[in-house]
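Hi L.,

As promised, Biotin carboxyl carrier protein:
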Amino acid sequence: MKVKVNEQYNFEVEVAENALKVNGAELQIDSRDLSASQKHIIYQHKSYNVEVVEREEDGKTVTVKVNGRLYQVGIEDQYDELLKKLGLDNSSANKVLEIKAPMPGLVLNVIVEEGQEVNKGDSLLVLEAMKMENIIKSPTAGILKKILVRKGDKVEKNEILLQFA
């Protein structure tokens, strides 16, 4: 399985009955359970207190405290790899490709530019509808491929406003 720590360190981990391999190298560790969520581990003559602080519902992301420091650990098994290869993983299934007008209105301001990278929740444009200003925010992170409206344009409900790459 693949393990990612703090969204930056990647490891290939194999767990057998009495062995743990990380990136192909077998680790010699001594561990003792302290409770259901705590372990004491000795590795290379150093002592580590490990506690599972939080576990996401999907079981694929865990927050772990090691000697007082927090780490975000993501786990990807062979089934996740297969889904990704087939294009059925959540990241591609839930990817937003375009933003449509939620109601008819007038574009008061376009805040972003084509080619700009945006994060989920970033303001994209201001749409006036029924004398109210509505800020359209990004539902996802991505790069804006095309902006199909300009300031002053009148739009209809479900008209495509922006497209993501």
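The radius of gyration is 23 Å.

Thanks again for sending the construct details.

K.
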